[in-house]
Known about the structure:
Layout: H1 3-7, H2 13-29, E1 38-45, E2 51-52, E3 60-61, H3 67-72, H4 77-80, E4 82-91, H5 98-112, E5 117-123, H6 129-139, E6 146-149, H7 162-174, E7 183-187, E8 190-193, E9 198-199, E10 208-209, E11 217-220, E12 223-226, E13 249-253, H8 260-268, E14 273-278, H9 286-297, E15 301-306, H10 321-324, E16 326-328, H11 334-344, H12 351-358
Parallel strand pairs: 1-4, 1-5, 5-6, 6-7, 13-14, 14-15, 15-16
Antiparallel strand pairs: 2-3, 7-8, 8-11, 9-10, 11-12
Amino acid sequence: MSNHLKQVGRWTLSQRTLSLVFGAWLLLGSAGAAERPQVVILATGGTIAGQQKKPGEAGYTAGQLAVDAIIAAVPELHAVAQVSGEQIASIGSQDVNDQVWLRLLRRINELAGDQAVGGVVVTHGTDTIEETAFFLDLTVATNKPVVLVGAMRPATAAGADGPLNLLNAVRIAAAPESRGRGVLVALNEEIHSAREVTKTNTTQVQTFRSPNAGPVGLFTAGHLRYLRAPSGGGRPHFVLGERADLPPVEIVYAHANMQAGLVEASAQLGARGLVLAGVGNGNMSRGAMDALAALARQGTVIVRSSRVGSGWVSRNVEVDDDSLGFVASQDLNPQKARILLQLALTQTSDPARVQAMFDPANR
């Protein structure tokens, strides 16, 4: 084994040897059992594939390790599933764009159509993992498990969380009870739905939360436990075909003394839709409201969300959405409201039809 791989996860040689022996023992013990499911890991980079410049330093570079090195660092994976890996990208998730999303979508749909594949895991940076997960949840055409996983500590850090997160993600993807639950996000021994999950802390491993609903499952002593039944579907689904990109949508952040110029500048970028990260219940200054209303009259779709972090943005409470032509995001935070609006704009720019896609009754 190369020095490069010995460094991953800062495991000592003896620890890695024990892990390999343990993995081999599990494999031998399962020889008479049913064939392990096939799980494909699609790697995009992120902290889970990151390396520190010097051991012990806080700084690191994301996306440095290839998927084969990440898999090699967790030999226990092979006791759970027949694992293979593919490299989709090698970037920090702050650089994820429409093209990466579409590449992932098409590859996942191809894999889902393969009867031999039981599930898919996507390794991803945590900065935008919730956005990629939600995009895939609205576009992937399968009931097979699709699980996004990342890490808050780079692979070379002491106490790296990536190896256990990856092992748990493969366990989820290999489990029959994971079917039909939509796209999931797994970190820190918790499982969250793509719609609900959000990052709530800049650096702590317990950063991912679902403020309005809580996790859908968790691991206790290594055992996968779901806390509620699958929802049964019903969420919007978008077929993108051979699209090369998505309609441009920008987010405008509200604050005290907000000026209309922020709204107008976003429109000048060519946005077909705008999402307001509003104060409180999706509110904004009078000047910003007037500017947004003017854009709505010109055909730009305006969605009101909130910067607060939890709760619902209600329609026609503090803001007269009907008269202004606005859409209320309901329980979606600004970054997820942007994704749903992008996808909605591939079908319609009618605010009433867009609102129906945001409403709980039409999920």
